[in-house]
Structures are given as C-alpha cells and as structure tokens.
Design brief:
The structure holds two protein chains of two kinds.
Chain A: H1 2-15, E1 20-21, E2 32-44, E3 50-61, H2 66-86, E4 90-95, E5 99-103, E6 106-120
Chain B: E1 13-16, E2 19-20, E3 25-34, H1 42-46, E4 51-60, H2 68-74, E5 79-85, E6 98-104, E7 124-139
The chains are: A alpha+beta, B mainly beta.
Chain lengths: 121, 142
C-alpha cells in the first residue's frame, strides 16, 4: 500500500518531466524533487477499509541569483502541481513557503508540497 | 456478565444484487420505523406494530463502471437482494450474523453527483435512504 503509493507518485512526477527521487539520494543534484513521508503518513480514510497515505514532495532548485532561483522554484512548483492535478487518485493538500534547505553542507532554495492518496490495504 | 464484544467500525459487507460495495461507503445504517400505510394485523400488533426497514447510506461518488454509484444509476427503481454484514465477515456465524432481504433501489438522482469546490476534497453523497421491501432476516448459518 505505502510502497505502491510512493512508486506511483514518483512515476507520475517523472512522467511530467520532473527529476524525482522516491528515496532520499546521497547527494543533491538540483533541480529535483524528493519524496519523504508526511507528518500524517498513514491515517484512516473516508470510507470503510481505506487509508490515506501522505508524502511530502520537497522541491529543490540549483543555487543562482535570487530572481533566477525564485523563478525556477515557481516554475517547478507549478509543474508539480499540474502533474498531481492531472493524475488520478493523488491530491495536493498544501504547499509550504519557500525556505533554505541544508543538504550536505550546502543551502538550497526549496519548498514542500504535501500530497496524499486514498488507498486500501 | 462481562462486556459484550463490540463491532469494529473499520469493515463492512453490503452486497447488493450479488456485488459487495463496502469500500464505497463512509456510513451504513439499517433500522426500522413505524410502517407508513399498511393495515396492522393482530399478528403485527403482537410484534409491536408493523415496521418498515430501511438503509441510510453515505459514500463516495464515482462514475467508474464498477462503482456503487453507477450500479444505483443503472438499476434505479428495481428490487434486488441484499446481504448486510456489520462485521464485514464473508461467512455468517452465530456471533457475527448476516442480515438479508430485498432492497428497493431509489430513483435516479437520489444519489447526488457533484458537490462543493475544494483543492484536495472529493465528492460524496450523504444520508441517502434505501427502503427495504418486507422483512429482514438475521442469518447465522455459515
């Protein structure tokens, strides 16, 4: 159930032309997206026997001038939201404000989109 | 006595015309009320008066060909057999019985299609009544 949701979400985003890692990579190679479990990873769903599996899609852009970085993150967030909106079964719940993310000692501009899917055991 | 075992609310079986649609429901209740029009016989009165059974169901809207919603659209107005298992068990037992009978599928449009705009929500129908024709049988036979 969880693995299937993770793979399906990665596949949808990859299909839309985004570089997405279903598992946290050893080193950052932005622009990229990383899937990590959300705060409410698995919660009970709306119907009998269903569960809601949530992932945080962390989007990271390469370091550049402020305007270039921010524009790149805007575009990456737009593309990701469009891909999720066009998919069946996945819902974008919220998008966090951009912030700096430290990966292996380097700071990158990033944002996090919380995505979930209703699924069954 | 010790406390009776409660029914967990995370499973259900509601088979209508041979298909179990449990996963499409968010709420299913079966109960009875005083019968609307029929004459009360002495036999009815001896049982506390004539009763009409009915389901009240809520669930997800789906236009998939195998969904509950589509089945209700296709079979609107017909009377079909149902099996209801609050425990979600496939086989009835003395402690986890099935309820069986005949349900009348409501007219088209009883199960709404559409709803409020939402960034991450889905459409659902809420509290639709499905009348049961005749009596309900409590079945404990495996």
């Amino acid at each position: 159930m969880i693995g299937e949701a993770r793979t399906a979400l990665a596949s949808i985003l990859t299909g839309a032309g985004l570089r997405v890692f279903a598992f946290t990579p050893e080193r950052a190679t932005p622009p990229m997206g990383i899937l990590v479990p959300s705060g409410d990873w698995v919660t009970s769903g709306e119907t009998f026997g269903s569960f809601r599996v949530g992932f945080d899609v962390t989007l990271i852009v390469a370091n550049a001038a402020n305007e270039t970085m921010i524009t790149a993150l805007d575009d990456l967030t737009d593309s990701t939201l469009e891909a999720i909106s066009d998919s069946t079964g996945f819902y974008a719940s919220s998008v966090g404000a951009p912030s700096m993310l430290d990966i292996s000692g380097a700071d990158y501009l990033s944002t996090t989109i919380t995505v979930y899917q209703n699924t069954q055991l | 006595m010790t406390t009776s075992t409660r029914i967990k609310a995370n499973a259900l079986l509601l088979s209508i015309d041979g298909t179990d649609y449990w996963a499409d429901f968010s709420s299913v209740m079966m109960q009875s009320e005083e019968a609307a029009a029929d004459v009360n016989t002495f036999y009815d009165a001896s049982l506390g008066g004539r009763r009409d059974f009915y389901f009240t169901v809520s669930g997800v809207q789906s236009t998939e060909s195998t969904s509950f919603w589509r089945s209700m659209w296709a079979d609107a107005g017909s009377e079909v057999a149902f099996i209801y298992a609050p425990h979600g068990n496939a086989t009835a037992s003395s402690d986890q019985p099935h309820f069986t009978g005949t349900v009348r599928i409501p007219a088209k449009g009883s199960f709404m299609i559409g709803g409020e705009a939402s960034a991450d929500g889905t459409f659902a129908f809420d509290g639709v009544r499905m009348d049961i024709v005749g009596d309900v049988t409590l079945d404990t036979t495996p």
